[in-house]
Each structure stands twice: as C-alpha cells, then as structure tokens.
Specification:
With 484 residues, this protein is an alpha+beta fold. Among the domains are: 36-144 and 350-445, f41 fragment of flagellin, N-terminal domain; 182-280, Immunoglobulin-like, CATH 2.60.40. Helix content is 44%, strand content 19%. The protein is built from 8 helices and 19 strands. It has helices spanning 9-34, 45-99, 107-130, 192-196, 220-234, 390-444, 448-474, 479-483; strands at 132-133, 136-137, 145-150, 154-158, 171-177, 181-185, 200-205, 208-213, 238-242, 248-255, 262-265, 279-280, 288-291, 294-299, 302-305, 316-319, 333-342, 345-348, 356-359. The strands form 5 sheets. The protein has an 8-stranded antiparallel sheet with strand order 3-17-5-13-14-15-16-4, with no helix packed on it. Strands 8-7-11-12 form a 4-stranded antiparallel sheet, with helices on one face. A 3-stranded antiparallel sheet has the order 6-10-9. A hairpin with a 7-residue loop joins strand 18 (345-348) and strand 19 (356-359). Helix 1 (9-34) runs antiparallel to helix 7 (448-474). The radius of gyration is 41 Å and the shape is rod-shaped.
Length: 484
C-alpha cells in the first residue's frame, strides 16, 4: 500500500464519475421536463434533421388544411350566388313561355312580361358585380381567364385555368376548314301537279319526325311553307326552302359533323332519290385549324385547344366566317388572333411548392351569357332578349335555355371542384397530418416511463458517487497517524 498526499487518485476518479452521473441526471431531467428526447442538435444530429423536416412539413400541412377550408367557403359563397342566378333564369323562362302564348296576350301583357324580364336582367348584372368574398369579386369575370379577339368572324368563347396568358402578342388562329351544316338538295323540281296529287314529305331529326301530305288547295310555295311550319311545331332543327328551280333544299340549323337528318318524298328525286325511301343527309364539317400553331379540335363552329398543348389547353373560340373556297390550304388562313388574360383563382392546397389547384369563375352578367346562339331575332346575348312578338319570345326562350345550361355547367364545375378537389384533398391532408404527427412523435418525443427509470438510476448513481467522493477525500487523513 502506497500513501500520497499530492495526488488523490481515488478522489479524482470519484469526482469524474460524479460529474458524468450529474450530467446524465441533468439530461434526464431536461427530457422529462420538456417531454422531448431531442432538445438540441447534440442529442442526435441526424434525428434532429429528420424531425425538423417533419415539423416543417407538419406546419405546411396545417396551413394547407386551413387554406382548403377557406377555399371551400369561397366556392360555397359563389355557388350560393349562382343558385340565385339559376332561379332568376327559370323565372325569366316562365315569362318567355307566357309571352309566347300569342293567341291570348295583348300588348299590355307583353309589356308587363318584358318589364319584369328587364328587371330580372338588371338583378343578374347586380349579382354579377356585387358577389364578393372579402374584397374579391367573384362573378364579374375578374377571376377567370378572359379574352378578346381581332378578326371580324372570330369570337372568344372561354378559357380554362390551364390556358396560358397570351401576353401582348396574342394567339394567332388559322382556319383550314369551314364549319358547314348537314344538308340535302332534291334533284327533281317540285311542281304544282305533284302537289295537287298529294305529294308526301317526311323529315326525321333528333328522334322526331314530321310527315306532311300536300292538300289539293296547296301550291308549291304553300306546301313547302306548311311543311316548314310543321317542322317548327315539332321542334325539328332543320329548315326547308325552295331553290330558284323549285328544287327543295333541306339544311340543319346546327353546324358540325354530329348533326344529321333523314328525308323521304313520294316522288323520286324531290327529296329522296327513291320514292318512299328514307335517305340520310350529307353530314356537315366541323371547323378545323390551329391556335398559336398548336393542335386544336373542331366541334361545329367551335375550335378548342387540345388537352396537353403548351399554351392553348382549354381555350375555345368560335369562327363564324366563310372562307372563299370553303376549304382552305394546308397551312390555313389567318382569321385573327385571340388575346387571353389569365386571372383564374389559384389555391395552395398542399404543404410543398407547386401543390396548387385552380378554377376559373366566369362572368354571369346578361351581356356575357348565351352568346353566339343562332336565332331569327338576331339576339347576340341574353341581355338583348325581347318578348314583344311571338317569334322574339321563342328566340328569347332559346337564349334563356342556353344561359341556364351555362350557369348550370359553372355550378357543376364548382361542385366537382369542391367535392373532388378541395374536400377530397382536405380529407387526405388531415390523414397525412395525423400520420406525420405520429411519425414525428416517435422520433422526437420521450418515452416518459423509460426515461423515469433512467432518471432514477442516474439519481442513485449521483448520490452514490457523492458518497464515494467523500470517502476518497477521507483517505489522506490516515497519513497523519504516521506523522504522529
């Protein structure tokens, strides 16, 4: 046994153990008091990085949930206003039907109907201008993809959230083929003798048919007019007319390849080439061309940017012109340009960059609804309708029906956006938030039971080390016995 007084190695050793135990006790206390096993980078550098990334993702998910809930509120506000617009259009339709009852109405009744329609149109415009969510106006067209055109026969119809802004240059529209209507022309002239003999005409269109047998008192002109009257009463969308040589010409009211009709005549060549046979019309052509040099698809007179195109996806224009030779050259004829201002609403519904969705809110004023609808009264838009005559009442009804379809489509788009995109995404966000919180808890949170056991051990070890340090400090005192 050696005895030294300059260096007490036992005390130094006991002191080191005491320091270690005290340090571990302090860390255990910190974890128990904070509930976290990672309080600083030194507690686990790699684990800290993972958990902080999860925390950032969780904060983003929490905000995305709130964003989606706010977006749903905005969509519901918009849809509520559109529901009112729908109700107004239905009331206008009822008034137009009342005005079409020509045999009963007098001028005073018609004027009352027109006055109420005018008031309703003013209310539609007011809803369009005043519907707001906060300070953002919803139905005045300022939150959609708006457009304007150059070119006499070119008209902007609509654009979607996917349509790019055209900046100042615009998108050039080239037409390679006119839109035409299904038609059929007789090869044999209709004569008074045929009419007197009881010429029978049959026209079939859209699942409905009209048959007219000429009367003895008819002539060529009256028989054709009576046939046309019967067609209009039955709601067929075709027009029958006489050419200069008294041959019959039948043409569909709508443009495009989807529309056709069938005809028959009791005399071969008047309509059908075989007596009594049902003969189909020649189908019309859809307009064809390109927009901004990108692929476009025709449907009647409407030319639409193909899905997936770089700039014009969702862009729709109407070309109502007539190229000089019907079919243009391969490269197409420049008929004008369309300028698109992209102001569609964009919602951040995810926790990361680029996780956005959007929707366009269209202008629902009377000047923007039911545009480009063919009618005999030459009404260009809903705000032009007038029910003061029987024909204008019928044409007004056509435009109101088109407006109802447009508003209903907007409501359907909003409903699908709310249900499938926002509410579906919201449910997914909440599930992701729950699972990510659980994952972050596993990494970051302390197991209180296990840590309490560790704390108790460290506490005992600290008290033991303190006692042993005291004992080690007593050892040098035995040297005093040697000195005595």
């Amino acid at each position: 046994m050696t005895l030294r007084i300059n260096h007490n190695t036992d005390a130094i050793n006991a002191h080191r153990s005491l320091q270690n135990n005290d340090h571990q006790l302090g860390k255990s206390l910190e974890k128990l008091s904070s509930g976290l096993k990672i309080n600083r980078g030194a507690d686990g550098p790699a684990t800290l990085v993972i958990s902080e990334q999860m925390r950032a993702q969780l904060a983003g998910l929490n905000q995305a949930v709130r964003n989606s809930e706010t977006a749903i509120s905005m969509v519901q506000t918009t849809e509520g206003a559109l529901n009112t617009v729908n109700s107004m259009l239905i009331s206008m339709r009822q008034l137009a039907i009342h005005a079409g009852n020509e045999g009963v109405n007098d001028q005073v009744m018609l004027q009352a109907d027109q006055q109420e329609i005018s008031n309703t149109l003013a209310s539609l415009d007011r809803i369009s201008k005043q519907t707001q969510f906060g300070n953002r106006r919803l139905l005045d067209g300022s939150n959609g993809a708006n457009g304007a055109v150059t070119g006499k026969a070119l008209e902007f119809v609509r654009a979607s959230i996917k349509t790019n802004d055209s900046a100042g240059s615009g998108f050039q529209v080239n037409i390679t083929q006119n839109a035409t209507r299904a038609n059929l022309e007789g090869s044999v002239a209709l004569t008074n003798e045929m009419v007197k003999a009881g010429e029978t005409f049959t026209v079939i269109e859209g699942g409905r048919s009209v048959t007219y047998e000429a009367k003895a008192e008819d002539n060529v002109q009256t028989s054709v007019q009576n046939l046309q009257n019967a067609i209009e009463q039955a709601g067929l969308r075709v027009t029958v007319s006489l050419n200069e040589g008294n041959t019959l010409n039948v043409i569909h009211s709508d443009y495009g390849s989807k529309h056709e009709f069938q005809v028959s005549s009791s005399t071969a060549g008047v309509l059908s080439q075989v007596s009594g046979a049902i003969e189909s019309s020649q189908r019309g052509f859809d307009v064809a061309g390109t927009i901004n040099g990108e692929a476009a698809k025709g449907a009647g007179r409407l030319l639409s940017g193909v899905t997936g195109t770089k700039n014009v996806d969702g862009l729709v224009v109407r070309y109502s012109g007539d190229l000089s030779e019907g079919i243009a050259n391969d490269t197409g004829t420049d008929v004008g340009s369309v300028f698109v201002a992209q102001n569609s609403l964009t919602f951040q519904v995810g926790a990361n960059q680029g996780q956005t969705v959007g929707i366009s809110l269209l202008n629902t004023s009377g000047t923007q609804l039911a545009r480009g609808i063919i009618n005999k009264s030459n009404f260009e838009k809903l705000s032009d309708i007038n029910v003061m005559t029987a024909q204008s009442a019928q044409d007004s009804l056509t435009l109101i029906d088109a407006a109802v379809d447009e508003v209903t489509k907007i409501r359907a788009d909003l409903g699908a956006f709310q249900k499938n995109t926002l509410e579906g995404g919201l449910s997914n966000l909440r599930i992701a938030e729950e699972n990510l919180t659980a994952a972050e808890s596993v990494i970051r949170d302390v197991d209180m039971a296990a840590e309490m056991a560790i704390f108790t051990r460290n506490q005992i070890m600290t008290e033991s080390a303190t006692a042993m340090l005291a004992q080690a400090n007593q050892s040098p005192k035995s040297i005093l016995q040697l000195l005595g």
